């Protein structure tokens, strides 16, 4: 094996710069230096090789002997061997006249090497190092580590998480302290200059060789034993301690050396080791530590569990904003960044890539929702399609998707299953690992060996899944593709893959794909994201709503099924309100406008927003009268009934008369099924209008009619069934039929526990409120009180103010309160504020203790 001592290699690099008259090298200087070396030596070293040597480009291996010889010849030596001998001799001669104490020579040499390593690594930073941010959690980790008796700590994560930059910030601070007078010694090395062979036959010699110390004095052990050294620390810091950085077999030898060093010096509390490595390398080392019972010597940072593979955190929103201001201080950056943008750029590799593509005019302020997908697609094209081994990389990704499966919230591929096929694509696979596109995770336990291959980011996984679906379908976005999505893709990934398919279909103008979207049976909690996604496409002109150049795309008129697909009480939330307002910018027909304004009115009632409700009522009244004739129950009458009761305490009769007529003369089964998609909103609105009469038997009778129709028709009614059961349970509790109510409630809880991730916040609040009533009637007063408190907090956060007022009104209606207590007054003032701010009638809420929870629905 060729041995290159780091201090000699760094000295050679500096001598080359001195010969060329370069004080501080930049990437652009490498071309000039290549020409200059060729003119003097008549031998060629490419500028690419020089960029690797000076740290501007990643290099897995040390430079060849050929390259070292040319550089040495450029420095007036016959070759690398003579250069090494001259500088070893010079180093020995310099110590003869006035030998310095060993601790001084060690400190000086370590400082010199560390400064050069720091410069080389910071030069490679894609975002200029002076613009990068210091990670507070890394600083906290190292600070805590210094106060433990553990010997080693590490930063571990897949490629692209910013380990090296975070380490460089900490090293920079420590070196600054040392140059200002600190007695600590820090040796900072990049893994590519490590040699696997100890010098002088012992570990002390190996460390001294790494620092370029050639004196015969005693080694590091004596230095650490020195009483003058007791208040100082010696840091051995290695960046990129990863298996793929070394030739086969070298990583194991270096790991042995590292373990021996830690074992030898662990008795010295002032000796510390700091490493960065990828997750796969850490897993390999961790397994050895577990076998040797030595893991306790390592400080793992803020891992909640030592079995985890990473302790690097994603960027926070504050760190992303800080980066934006540093990169472009003259730009007026938004203080509030879209959560989708934060989600994307919390992965440092994506932030770095976006910066490289937008260096001149960097800003996240104008990056729209759809632009996020452009960033990921562009990243994929640049890193996969437009690179060497592009075909092989695509084959690797298709292979991993073919044999992958969802497991514990991850998409994993068993490496043993694909190993034989991967061997033919090994170079492409390793490159995907090195650029941070893929990662290996070892989940071996006592029962079996599991080595999994995973995508480092969910967006990359979703994009690859979507591209494979499309390619297998000849890039045609139609019903067959939707069927493949449902059949082939795990349900966990339906939503992100569907959004990518929409994105890609739009880019190639296959707008007919929209009529097939309703074939995907998404959960209620997911539909709102798809609708928001579609509206953002329209807003940013990715859908040609008013374009004269493209065929006009009428989102709602030509695709009524799609329009109905996204309507339901379960969606009620501030985000849904925003989406409904955005829908109004489209070219809607009058019937569609009725549903949009009706839903906005429902949200207005939930939010106790009387102005919003009045605006919706006004808009509905301005629509032609004949529009409402097709409705089995007039939604405007239902809204006016609810609103006048809450505003004035009076009950309008029109809606109640229509609901009674519906009960005695319901629509035929085929008509019920045909209009059900949107009419389920109307049915729940009718239930709410009935509930204000305080006649629970009428509510139950109406639900019974709906139950019969649902049983007689084949329609998907999960959300409607949920709200009807919640209402029925609440009504039965009020009527004293507790046992029947508990049976219904138990079934509701069972379904929730099985499918809780499909429930929207509004559905959860409604269920929790009935649960609180059941608990109270079963003697679980403390649990009921906690549940009510939870509902109140969620309602305040989600602007479900009607439910919050309902809870407080029920509390205030109870007898035996100490009305003079501060707690009672605080609750009462909150109640008054809620009602008065909405401009509503307080007396309409005080009897609410006996009202159904679904007053709050609409």
From TrEMBL:
Superkingdom in the source lineage: Bacteria
Protein name: NACHT domain-containing protein
């Amino acid at each position: 094996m060729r041995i290159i001592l780091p201090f000699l290699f760094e000295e050679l690099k500096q001598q080359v710069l001195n010969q060329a008259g370069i004080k501080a090298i930049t990437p652009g200087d490498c071309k000039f230096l290549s020409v200059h070396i060729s003119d003097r030596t008549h031998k060629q070293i490419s500028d690419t090789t020089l960029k690797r040597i000076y740290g501007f480009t990643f290099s897995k291996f040390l430079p060849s002997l050929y390259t070292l010889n040319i550089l040495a010849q450029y420095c007036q030596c016959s070759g690398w061997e003579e250069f090494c001998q001259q500088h070893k001799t010079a180093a020995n001669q310099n110590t003869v006249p006035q030998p310095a104490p060993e601790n001084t020579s060690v400190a000086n040499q370590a400082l010199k090497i560390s400064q050069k390593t720091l410069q080389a690594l910071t030069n490679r930073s894609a975002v200029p190092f002076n613009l990068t941010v210091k990670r507070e959690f890394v600083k906290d980790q190292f600070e805590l580590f210094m106060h433990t008796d553990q010997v080693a700590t590490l930063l571990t994560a897949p490629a692209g998480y910013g380990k090296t930059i975070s380490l460089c910030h900490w090293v920079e601070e420590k070196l600054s302290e040392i140059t200002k007078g600190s007695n600590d010694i820090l040796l900072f090395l990049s893994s590519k200059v490590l040699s696997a062979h100890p010098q002088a036959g012992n570990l002390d010699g190996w460390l001294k060789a790494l620092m370029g110390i050639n004196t015969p004095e005693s080694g590091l052990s004596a230095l650490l034993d020195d009483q003058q050294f007791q208040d100082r620390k010696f840091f051995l810091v290695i960046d990129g301690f990863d298996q793929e950085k070394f030739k086969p077999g070298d990583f194991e030898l270096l790991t042995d050396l590292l373990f021996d060093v830690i074992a030898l010096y662990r008795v010295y509390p002032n000796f510390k080791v700091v490493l960065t490595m990828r997750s796969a390398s850490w897993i390999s080392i961790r397994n050895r530590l577990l076998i040797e019972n030595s893991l306790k010597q390592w400080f793992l940072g803020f891992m909640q569990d030592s079995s985890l593979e990473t302790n690097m955190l994603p960027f926070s929103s504050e760190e992303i904003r800080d980066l934006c201001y540093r990169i472009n201080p003259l730009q007026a950056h938004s203080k509030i960044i879209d959560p989708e943008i934060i989600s994307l750029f919390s992965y440092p590799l994506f932030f770095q890539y976006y910066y490289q593509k937008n260096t001149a005019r960097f800003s996240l302020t104008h990056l729209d929702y759809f632009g996020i997908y452009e960033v990921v697609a562009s990243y994929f094209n640049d890193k996969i399609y437009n690179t060497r081994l592009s075909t092989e990389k695509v084959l690797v990704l298709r292979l991993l998707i073919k044999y992958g499966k969802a497991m514990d919230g991850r998409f994993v591929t068993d490496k043993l299953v694909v190993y034989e096929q991967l061997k033919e694509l090994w170079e492409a696979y390793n490159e995907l690992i090195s650029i941070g596109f893929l990662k290996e995770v070892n989940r071996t336990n006592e029962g079996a060996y599991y080595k999994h291959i995973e995508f480092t980011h969910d967006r990359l996984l979703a994009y690859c899944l979507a591209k494979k679906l499309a390619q297998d379908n000849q890039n045609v976005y139609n019903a067959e593709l939707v069927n493949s999505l449902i059949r082939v893709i795990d349900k966990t990934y339906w939503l992100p893959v569907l959004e990518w398919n929409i994105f890609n279909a739009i880019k190639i103008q296959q707008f007919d794909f929209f009529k097939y979207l309703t074939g995907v049976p998404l959960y209620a909690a997911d539909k709102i994201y798809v609708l928001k996604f579609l509206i953002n496409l329209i807003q940013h002109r990715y859908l040609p709503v008013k374009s004269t150049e493209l065929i006009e795309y009428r989102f709602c008129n030509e695709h009524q099924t799609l329009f109905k697909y996204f309507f339901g009480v379960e969606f009620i939330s501030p985000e849904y309100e925003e989406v409904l307002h955005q829908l109004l910018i489209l070219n809607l027909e009058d019937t569609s406008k009725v549903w949009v304004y009706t839903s906005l009115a429902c949200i207005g009632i939930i939010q106790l927003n009387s102005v919003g409700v009045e605006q919706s009522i006004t808009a509905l009244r301005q629509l032609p009268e004949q529009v409402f004739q097709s409705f089995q129950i007039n939604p405007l009458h239902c809204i006016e009934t609810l609103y006048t009761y809450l505003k004035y305490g009076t009950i309008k009769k029109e809606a109640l008369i229509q609901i009674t007529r519906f009960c005695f003369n319901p629509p035929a089964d085929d008509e019920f099924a045909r209009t059900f998609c949107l009419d389920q909103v109307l049915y729940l609105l009718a239930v709410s209008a009935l509930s204000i009469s305080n006649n629970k038997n009428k509510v139950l009778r109406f639900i019974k009619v709906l139950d019969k129709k649902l049983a007689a028709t084949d329609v998907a009614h999960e959300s409607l069934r949920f709200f009807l059961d919640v209402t029925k349970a609440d009504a039965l509790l009020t009527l004293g039929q507790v046992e029947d109510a508990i049976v219904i409630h138990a079934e509701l809880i069972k379904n929730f526990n099985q499918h809780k991730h499909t429930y929207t916040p509004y559905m959860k609040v409604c269920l929790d409120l009935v649960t609180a009533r059941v608990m109270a009637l079963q003697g679980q007063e403390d649990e009921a009180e906690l549940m009510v408190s939870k509902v109140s907090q969620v309602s305040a956060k989600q602007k479900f103010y009607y439910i919050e007022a309902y809870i407080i009104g029920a509390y205030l209606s109870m007898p035996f309160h100490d009305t003079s207590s501060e707690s009672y007054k605080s609750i009462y003032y909150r109640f008054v504020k809620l009602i008065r701010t909405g401009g509503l009638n307080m007396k309409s809420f005080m009897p609410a203790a006996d009202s159904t929870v679904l007053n709050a629905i609409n």
